[in-house]
Amino acid sequence: MQGLARVVTRDAEFHGRQLKKGDRVMLMFAAANRDPSAFECPHDIDLDRSANRHRAFALGVHRCLGSNFARAMFRVMITELLRRLPDVHVAAPIERLADAGDVYAVKHLPVRFAPRPREGVGMPAHSD
Ligand code: HEM
């Protein structure tokens, strides 16, 4: 999710800009997550980042209800991926779906890695 639109509920000033009740604003979570005044080396993937108050799951009353589930899934996915393919890296520009709206939907993600033996090959086939 790159960001979400909101309607301003009262007149307010935000970083020197005057906002009026009823204005539509776009909250760009993805840009906030790359704010160099908030994150050291914001463009680097750092799985051990500790000061990490990112906005990927939004903020406030509508903050993502599934954030802890999503974190658990990502932890398993990244751990298993790096365990199987420790040298995996993105090998070409990422191609995105053109019609996915605010979602950063990936159409093609070419990766490169050294081939390794498949796990489980040679195990007897499961039969019911
Ligand atoms: C990487 C994965 C995910 C990301 C980046 C993400 C991101 C977000 C964001 C930005 C919002 C805020 C929407 C808003 O402000 O209107 C949201 C809301 C929500 N998310 Fe997620 N989400 C993820 C995974 C999940 C999962 C796995 C579930 C459920 C199992 C889930 C359930 C929800 C629900 C129910 C809301 C609405 C909360 C509300 O409006 O009160 N999300 N999510």
Arithmetic mean pLDDT: 90
Named once each, the bound ligands are: protoporphyrin IX containing FE
- Name the strands of the widest sheet in spatial order: 1-4
Distance between the termini: 42 Å
Number of strands: 8
Radius of gyration: 20 Å
Counting H and I runs of at least 4 residues, what is the number of helices?
2
Q: Stretches where pLDDT falls below 50 for ≥5 residues?
A: none
Q: Which sheet architecture does the biggest sheet show? A: 2 strands, antiparallel
Helix and strand run: EEEEHHEEEE
Kindly estimate the percentage of residues that lie in beta strands according to DSSP: 15-25%
The computed structural class is alpha+beta
Helix content: 10-25%
Overall morphology = elongated
